[in-house]
Amino acid sequence: MNSTDIATVKSLLAKPQKIVIIPHKNPDGDAIGSCLALAHFLKATGQNPMVIAPNDYPKFLKWLPSDNLIYNFEHQNSQSKKLIEEATLIFTLDFNHFSRTGQLEPLLAASKADFIMIDHHQQPDTYARVTYSDVNMSSTCEMVYNFIEALDGTDKISKDIATCLYTGIMTDTGSFKYYSTTSKTHRVVANLIDKGAENMTIHQQVFDTNSPARLHLLGVALNNLKILEEYNTAYITLSQEELDKHNYSKGDTEGFVNYGLTLEGINFAVIFIENKEEGIIKISFRSIGEFSVNEFARNHFNGGGHTNASGGRSEVSIAETTKYFESLLENYKLQLQ
Ligand SMILES: [Mn+2]
Known about the structure:
EC number: 3.1.3.7
Helix content: 25-40%
Protein name: Bifunctional oligoribonuclease/PAP phosphatase NrnA
Distance between the termini: 37 Å
Keywords: Hydrolase
CATH class of the largest domain: Alpha Beta
Number of helices: 12
GO molecular function, one term: 3'(2'),5'-bisphosphate nucleotidase activity
Low-confidence stretches: none
CATH architecture of the largest domain: Alpha-Beta Complex
Organism: Croceitalea marina
Bound molecules: manganese (II) ion
């Protein structure tokens, strides 16, 4: 953030505001972690913020210190609507276009509130009064740490805030191994541990609380893995029937896509997951190196994200989707080497 932005934020927060904080739809660890951390921080400064998630978040994040600061728009619909309509200041975290919020989009578009965007995705929209966007950042949580630091607020970082921020940085960096993980990221994380984040416990809460059904579903996913050596590509499919058979619940397939990248020589990994209720195939893309899955998802699958991690969707069957996907690879053969 530049000094003008910092001054603007300081003056906005110098008076009592009606604040809501919004993560993207299907919020992940970084989205929920950053929103809750910011909510706890703003509360510590005397504000009274509320997080409104467009829909539910995964079980492996439910242990985060939320202190009833979070509404699920699908469950607390009228309360959430009212809060957004009355808001004077709206933070949008870990996304940069209203369309990423699903059903919240028309409410946000109609709002007269001042917007503050904190986000690390590419090609940010221009709706915010203050846009803190940096695509080189590991995570929105690292940016929220910087944001708090810019407001001279690090002494207000409680154990709860540190825990939320640590969780988001850990999940968005693949446990500190992705390209975007810098020495600065590690310094922030070290400070968060000093502020009380219990790194080992957080890791266990997120990664070591599998149900037997989830591990069996992973077995199915790995069994379905298809390797296209010619294109240094591997992909996984999961049908609705396979999900149902293993009592699928939200978040169960988190991280499955990454297994493709653990194969030697594979630079591009994809997972196609059928969602009968929404009538779509949900797709996650991951890459190693310079091949941009952000552009790939934008160009072919109605999505986007980061250079090495993105998402998209398809409205035809899994079989048709993967056939189309395979047909695209010839054009990218060189880039995928
Ligand atoms: Mn993120």
